[in-house]
Specification:
mainly beta
Length: 353
């Protein structure tokens, strides 16, 4: 009888251990880094459509099929003295790209639209808001529930309700912005931030799709000057927020977390300039952060508990002096793949699962 009890105990223990493990949680450091061909130089943004990845670079726009073992290919917008810095899209076919020129004092078109997945592009004839002599767009964000409702940072926060043709000022009291984020899990929340000239951090949010804004700069400040780089919200609890920040001194390079909607903050990761944050495509409560570290190598930090603990993975064969400008996660052939848009082209990390 005693032996039977021990056998049953061992069996239940094995079953319990198996059930408590999370098959959706990857072994973060069990993967392979790779440099993606065809794209070199500065990559400013990576965006995901239904079936494609888009990259904005100093050499125009590039595209790659998700899940297919094909190379990145150029899809145009190679305009002299310019770079492609961002995209929004309705589907695989309809895409808007942001072109930014080396000189801000220009009257050239800054928004281009494709209706055939990037095979051809046409400039959007933009109706500028009153007071704009030069219309220079830095970032675009799209309302997940209404694709034609687009927000932009162009010195102020602007809003379009007709797919980018006409614009109005949504918010003009903030500081210079480094990013603009609309949470796909909480579409009424819009976040933007950067730094004032000092540079103290600048951070603000809207909880009602841009109708009103709450300034959070004072609550976010800590014991050094820094710039807010990116924001990501917990997929189920909108009061939980992670913010990446960075600056010229080590204490400025941190990830900070709030559990009360931005009223108070604590530092949860140090020594990385958190330029880009993204959710895992496998498990949305898992998040990744990347940007620039002290070694100047390709790396990412991963957290399975939305920022309470972190694991950092660094490529031992990384190019030196590299900065990661954007990071996205996709599923390809049953494996999670991270893509990095960097100052030296596009790289990927495939989890060996």
């Amino acid at each position: 009888m005693r032996h039977l009890i021990l056998i049953l105990f061992a069996l239940f223990t094995t079953i319990g251990t198996s059930c408590s493990s999370d098959p959706a949680s990857p072994d973060f450091d069990n993967g392979t880094f790779k440099q993606e061909g065809a794209v070199s130089g500065d990559v400013y943004s990576l965006n995901i459509t239904d079936n494609f990845l888009l990259a904005g670079t100093t050499k125009g726009a590039f595209k790659k099929s998700i899940g297919a073992d094909d190379a990145w290919k150029s899809i145009g917008l190679e305009i002299p003295d310019s770079k492609v810095v961002d995209f929004v899209n309705w589907d695989d076919s309809q895409i808007i790209a942001v072109v930014k020129y080396d000189s801000v004092r220009q009257q050239k078109p800054t928004l281009f639209k494709s209706t055939n997945g990037g095979s051809s592009w046409n400039a959007i004839n933009v109706e500028k808001p009153e007071g704009y002599q030069y219309f220079v767009v830095h970032y675009l964000e799209q309302n997940p529930n209404d694709p034609k409702n687009i927000f932009a940072y162009a010195g102020r926060i602007l809003e379009s309700n007709d797919g980018g043709k006409s614009w109005s000022i949504a918010y003009e009291e903030g500081g210079p912005s480094e990013f603009l984020t609309i949470s796909k899990y909480h579409p009424s929340q819009i976040w933007t931030g950067g730094a004032y000239e000092i540079p103290y951090p600048y951070l603000t949010k809207s909880q009602n799709s841009g109708e009103s804004w709450i300034l959070l700069s004072k609550s976010f400040r800590f014991d050094t000057q820094t710039t807010v780089k990116d924001v990501i919200l917990h997929p189920k609890q909108s009061s939980q927020i992670l913010v990446g920040a960075g600056g010229s001194v080590s204490p400025a390079n941190v990830i900070r977390k709030s559990t009360d909607g931005g009223q108070s903050w604590q530092t949860v990761l140090t020594d990385i300039n958190g330029i880009s944050l993204t959710h895992s495509s496998r498990n949305s409560t898992t998040v990744y952060a990347s940007g620039r570290n002290a070694d100047g190598t390709l790396f990412f930090a991963a957290s399975q508990d939305f920022g309470d603990s972190w694991q950092q993975i660094e490529w031992s064969d990384s190019p030196t002096g590299i900065q990661i400008n954007d990071i996205v996660s996709v599923m390809e052939g049953g494996q999670e793949v991270l893509y990095f848009g960097t100052s030296q082209g596009i790289f990927s990390y495939t989890f060996n699962e």
